[in-house]
Amino acid sequence: MTSTHYPIAIIGGGLGGLTTARVLHANGIDAAIFELEPDRHARTQGGMLDIHDDSGQEALRAAGLHEQFLALIHPGGESMRILDTTGTVLYEETDTGELDRPEIDRGTLRDLLLDSLPEGTVHWGSKVTTIAPDDSQTGRYRVELADGDSFTTDLLIGADGAWSKVRHVLSDTMPDYTGISFIEADLYNADTDHPAEAAVMGTGMLFALGGPTGILGHRETDGSLHFYLGHRADENWVDTIDFSDTTAAKAAILELLDGWDDDLRGLIANADTALTPRRINALPVGYSWPHTPGVTLLGDAAHVMSPFAGEGANLAMYDGSRLALALAAHPDDTDAALKAYETELFTRSAASAGDSAESLEMIFADDAPRGLVEMFTAMDRPGAIDDAAQQAPKAAH
């Protein structure tokens, strides 16, 4: 067994952890990231993200990467349409080219952050097994890894997602099931191989809603269609379907779409990938933890919420930048930095979690998509509050 000491250790190499390390690096502070995945190419990194000017883009400015980011965005990605179950378009807006919420592929953004860090910052294939206070010094933590290695750190940052191991150091609170489950899939080469589904998806984002069931999707930069079927159901509903048998799983899911437009049903029927079930979980709105020297959280570890306010990636990046800037502003007082960061974090995340919970209820309301259409229509009226769009739900972002 080997053991090393790192002044700052970040558990989790997602967008939040990477942003934290990058902003620290930009301020002359070293940090080590410990990431479960074996390497940067281990898996596809998901679909499109809309990066908000007042959060995700603000983090990229702090990271010194905003100009590079703007060169990588997806023109047209902010188009959006709302359909009912018959395929009728009830509301539609086109991408105006404004940069308040431009779209970018998650993998592209991750690469931008990874490439901005010094070689060796990310320790790949690091599975955390145990976290405990280190006996050698108050406020220091020892982290054991599955491969037998361990390390100590003066500041342990949990950027390790919804089921965070670092969170257990601070509280016993766990995410709860929200009542919504997702079924995720993709269609490739959409314009060529799936023209009907490509047409119903449109050029950007799709909301096709019908009470307790909805399809939420997006056209990707590679010409594929990435979508989620959301369904209000008991927590064990996904366990009643054999997702290892794609044909049978498709048949079971299509039963939820009886009477729906054929092109919308085609997203499931003609999916090129297996159907992947995902339960949507969230921490309680207003979740916080008692201040504890030497450890803190960011992103989903701190405030996992349903994805219907479009804040997940943006908040994780913004959290990371704010934590890093607080540490840079208090170079000799880490505890003061954590207190300043957490005070701001708790207020900000409670507001976002509340918005997310409200959006979930609106998207899967019995009369959906009425509420969503009314909300966007109200924004278009003269005198509408300019920032009302910040409350608009953005599926799975």
Question: Any descriptors?
Answer:
7-stranded mixed sheet; 2 domains; FAD/NAD(P)-binding domain; alpha/beta; 397 residues; 13 helices
Task: Describe what this molecule looks like in 3D.
Belongs to the aromatic-ring hydroxylase family. TetX subfamily. Pfam families: FAD_binding_3 (PF01494). It catalyses: a tetracycline + NADPH + O2 + H(+) = an 11a-hydroxytetracycline + NADP(+) + H2O. The chain folds into two domains: 225 residues, FAD/NAD(P)-binding domain (3-Layer(bba) Sandwich), CATH 3.50.50; 107 residues. 33% of the residues lie in helices and 23% in strands. With 397 residues, the chain is α/β, with parallel strands linked by helices.
Topology:
Layout lengths: L2 E9 L3 H12 L5 E3 L13 E3 L5 H7 L3 H5 L9 E4 L5 E5 L9 E3 H10 L6 E2 L4 E6 L7 E5 L4 E9 L8 H4 L5 E12 L2 H4 L1 H7 L3 E6 L2 E7 L5 E8 L13 H10 L6 H8 L6 E7 L12 E3 L2 H4 L8 H18 L4 H30 L6 H11 L17
Parallel strand pairs: 1-2, 1-10, 2-7, 4-12, 10-16
Antiparallel strand pairs: 3-6, 4-5, 8-9, 9-10, 11-14, 11-15, 12-13, 13-14
Helix pairs in contact: 1-4, 1-11, 2-11, 7-9, 11-12
CATH class of the largest domain: Alpha Beta
State the major sheet. Answer: 7 strands, mixed
Number of strands: 16
Helix/strand/pairing class, anyone?
Answer: alpha/beta
Mean pLDDT: 91
Give a short overview.
FAD binds at residues 50, 106, 300. The protein is α/β, with parallel strands linked by helices. It has helices spanning 15-26, 56-62, 66-70, 106-115, 167-170, 190-193, 195-201, 246-255, 262-269, 300-303, 312-329, 334-363, 370-380; strands at residues 3-11, 32-34, 48-50, 80-83, 89-93, 103-105, 122-123, 128-133, 141-145, 150-158, 176-187, 205-210, 213-219, 225-232, 276-282, 295-297.
